[in-house]
Write a structure and sequence with these properties.
The complex is a heterotrimer. Helices cover about 35% and strands about 20% of the residues of chain A. Chain A is of the alpha/beta class. In chain A, strand 1 (about 15-25) and strand 2 (about 25-40) form a beta hairpin. Chain C is mostly helical. Chain C is built from 13 helices and no strands. In chain C, helix 6 (about 145-160) crosses helix 8 and helix 7 crosses helix 8. The chains are: A alpha/beta, B mainly alpha, C mainly alpha.
Amino acid sequence: MDPQTTPTGEPLLSVRNLSTTFATETGLVQAVRNVSWELYPGEILGVVGESGSGKSVTMASIMGVVPKPAGKVSGDAVMFEGRDLLTLPPREMRKLRGREITMIFQDPMTAFNPVKTIGHQISEAIRVHDRHVSRKAARARSIELLASVGVPSPEARYAQFPHEYSGGMRQRAMIAMAIANGPKLIIADEPTTALDVTIQAQVLDVLKLIQAETGAATILITHDLGLISEMSDRVLVMYAGKVVESSDVFSVFGNPQHPYTLGLLASLPRIDTKLDSLLSIPGQPPSLTSPPPGCAFHPRCELSRGRSECWTAEPPLVQIAGPTEHTTACHFFTEMETEAGRVSIKLGVDVRSKGES
Amino acid sequence: MIAVPVLFGILFMSFMFTRLLPGDPLLMMMSVEEFSATDQYLEQRRADLGLDKPVPVQYVVWVGEVFRGNLGTSFHRRAPVTELIWDRLGPTALLTGTGILLALVIGIPIGVMAAVRQNSWFDYFSATGSMLAISIPNFFLGLMAIFIFSLQLRWLPTGGLRTLGVEPSFGDSLKHLIMPAGVLSAVLIGPYVRYTRQSMLDVLRQDHITTATAKGVRAQSIVIFHGLRNALIPLTTVIAIQIPALLAGTVIIETIFSWPGMGQLVLEAIRRRDYPIIIGVVLFSAILVMIFNLIADLLAAILDPRIRL
Amino acid sequence: MTDDLRPDEEATDRMDGGPYPGTPPDQTDWDDSLPIQSPWRIAWRRFRRHRLAFGGLIFVLVLVAIALLAPILAPQDPNVVDVSASRNPPSAEHLLGTDSAGRDVLSRLIYGSRVSLTVGVAAAISAAGVGTLLGLLAGVAGGWIDAVIMRLVDVFLSFPSLMLILLLVAVLGPSVATIVVVIAFFEWPTACRIVRQMALSIKEQDFVLAARATGSSRWRIMRKHVMPGVLSPLTVVATLLSAGAILLEAALSFLGLGVKQPQASWGGMLEEAQSLTILKEMPWLWIPPGAIIALTVLAINFMGDGLRDALDPRQQM
């Protein structure tokens, strides 16, 4: 897999100033706040952030599966293959879903309907988008798909129910369902979080295989940095509903330009060196109903040192001068190199990785 | 299975009733012809039926008689209880069956709508409506129905299975059926709406609904084939649970509407202290309920593959 | 450089929003100025907001007041028979008319509240009491005790209760006490099931495991941990049971097998309406009692609903 350090050509997906809010009993939750980013054909974009950072909601907003009426999606545009998904009529949006853009969910046990067979549900994905496909044809295709993701005895497995599958197999079946109609974009939301570590590797292999074969662009949402470093071409780091850093995977891991990214890297347990203690990011995740003023990360930021810019002005997402496309949203990103060094000394090992994936 | 001890319990309690109620147990178990027998003969029968033996033996004998179809003889009507129940079974079955059907046909769609349009005026309206339906005493509702539809509007007859002296026709029977069945269903609609709504809400909140949406399935299809299909599973249990109350309700409804069913039979028997009939009907109803519970369990297993063993 | 890095100090400083002067506190801090609310107060506030439930409560309280003050409020003696004034429509003297025996309908309506409320409350408490006892026993003890009790519940629930209630009341005599006992006798299984369910789920929770680990006896656990948890759903069940009991009593009286005449009872007042003539010609006789039964039960049901919402531990505010 040859990662692109600076993508060329037209983006497949272009998100501009997307915002999503939820009306709840405790107030208006600002889950996604003015995010803008791009996705290029055939690449794997890793989106990383803690729970509540807005990564899943962003994707749900793009697909139009945000629960209404509590959720409101707004923005300048979300361009997908020349069409603005935000203004697309619901019928058109529905046709896109499951065909051009598909989703793989975190927990395959609950994501599948427990009272219908897996095979039926995969066939459904096919027949919903092409009513001329006969039941038999859909069944044959579903069995093919199950085989392609490595489910053994797909003929027999077609008629089995989700609870009769093992965890890893279920996730594979989910992947099969996602590629059934040859999508251009696959969104994988924490695809391996619910699985055992050994199974995780297997499923990831399937994902890689699928991606290589179909050439679909993949958005990989996860909180697992290891996964990101292994799978992604480019990385998006999100915090409190905003994008705080984005670049190719080497730059993000080798030269983090945002204190949050640095914090994430520093908090990784390591097996290559002995650590005296683990460094965690102090503080609590922010409230999404009333996020901190200015930069949302400032209460937990060591680089900030209480400087007034941090809590008065929201840092814009700026492009850093350099050979690669690397954006960050920090007032003092120029000090990041020093800061990275400082933290590395404190930890006893260089948190930046110079290596390959 | 679980059913066996319950059956045992039902039989036992019924037996207790026969012995605890005032009156000669022998009288309850004799057949018509024996009413005018000689004392000697009666003594013999007493021995046959084990009435001079200890209670457990009596119980066994009694259960034996029950399984042979002998539920005793009515004091007042001079007919075997089994026969009387059999005659009355049809009308009651018709009434309760129609009642349940009506309640389902009206209740489930309302419940689904209420869930899909949660917190809308429709939701609140239907919730309050179902509350009202279970709060009005069914006899009052019946009286009001007769008052409005029979006496004031003259649309429907006041009771009975069909109009006397007229050729039996479907339309005529329907006119007689609709009010009692309607009143019977009114009490059921409340719980059906409520449970359907709750069940639908639970299902619609589940992840697989999001998956279906993400697959591109139409909203209506999701509601019916994914939502309702899954939501109906717990509903079978609810329907089964309501059946004893339903049968109890027939007592009042059949009396008000002069409907010749088991309910009317049993009420009359109570007024006249005709114990064999009462016990017969009660026992029969309880066993019926048990059977329906089994059917409901079976149905649930069919609908939900996770339950199958 | 390593001098400024004192991990412990820094960590604690951070917790309240930044060690450096000028950094405003984190908005996610707890607001210590709010008083700590007990779950009861929270429940009460939530209940009050549920307008229908609150309305129901008011209605019931008014009804209780009417029942207690019946001798003062009733314009006439409810049992005075005056055949000459039989079946009179509403007039100045008899605001709701008279029944077949010439008794004032309004007064009977007022006095009828006594019967309904007494039976409703007493039967509900008895049924809830027995049900709780057995439910706790089944839930906490488990094993064969649980199995036996649950089979018993199944058996009781298989019988059409109204038939048996009618039978027993007919045989034992229709006094208020008998009616209460008989109704409770058939309604306890519902309460039992719910209490047992609650007891089982509480038993599984961590704080009970902790109590057992520190050596508390089962009895003590039941008293101190399970009972308080069971109280909330129990209140809801008891409320709904009383609604059912009132309906049952009304049905009994309607069929003539309930509270004996001349004692006024709402259901009894409807008994006369079984005659088509009365039904058609004299609506004042039967519509008021029927309506008041419906309203009372409705009010109680709303209360029960409100209670259920208010006490639901899943809805954290």
